[in-house]
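debug: dumping io for the single-chain case to check the tokenizer round-trip. Nothing else runs in this session.
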Amino acid sequence: METGPISAILDTTLAIIFTWVGYKTAAIVWKYTPYSYPNARINAMEAKLLSEQRFNELAESRTLQNFVVNLEDTDYRDYLTGISTYNVEEIERSLERALAGTYELMIKILPGRVSPFFRLMLEEWDVRNVTSVVKAKFRGEPASDYVMEIGPMLPKVKAMAEAKSPEEMLVILEGTPYEGPYQRLLLGEISIQEFETELYRMHYGKLLSYALSKKNDERVILEEFVRLRIDRTNILTVLRAKAAGMDSEKIKSLVIPGGSVKLDPLIHVEDLSMALAELDSTRYGKVIRDVREEVEKDLSVLERALDKYILERMGELTRFYPLSVATPLGYILKREREIRKLRAIAKLIEDGVEPERIKELVGDVA
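debug: decoded output
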């Protein structure tokens, strides 16, 4: 019996198997290895997030100067050292710069196939700066007081703040994504509120387009993150509008597309209570039910509940995809929550609230 043909078949089969194994191994290495270092670094950073005990100690500061001093052994030290006057505005600006620094770090350490997402997220400060400057100009206030020293468009924003006329601001915005909406604002086609909404639509549209351009785990995680953020924004916008008695057509003009919740049923009901009832059948139903009575009195309770839900959802994705972009996104959310608490403590200290009451109030901040 000749063994030549059989050996050839076996050799070919083995070659195919080894090629397939090699391909799958390479695919796994390409998919997960780039996250090993950054996620290990992020896990170490998470261990340095402030504990509840530390927040309680900060609540005992009594003065804003003591509050800043008490943060000198944290990652916020470098951002707080430049404070010239101890007031809430200066502290909040420093904390915002610390948050932006976190985004910038993610851009540096994450794989090139996802780091642009965090660069896009930094553009939210451009949206906030542009809208703040435009609003200040329309109110006749000093626009430079509202500029946050963050964002890719900061030089243009500063130029806008110094502009002598609305037309000069339009020239500065020429060639940017915000030129069109601002021109429509000047022509009276949209209101200031609609102008702001349009800029956020553009921002979230970019984030969602980027998420949908990815594949596999990265698409799943990024898409979920963006849609959750859009849902949060839309739900709060609609409910606040209902509480203010705004009509349905006006509310529609303030909605951002791309979320997972169908908003028409909420928009067309008569009042806030009925809008909350409509949310009961959505993925946020349990979130609403847990705080329903409080929400009807104070919508900020729902804002905190939604933030907590999004953080928990990212935690689930991190456990399911441990070496993925879910880890940095989860850390960003935790950092945002930490900064919200620090801002709340600073504001309460400035208002002269007693430490025990500060601890109680800040404990409720998601």
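debug: round-trip ok. The two ends are 77 Å apart (CA to CA).
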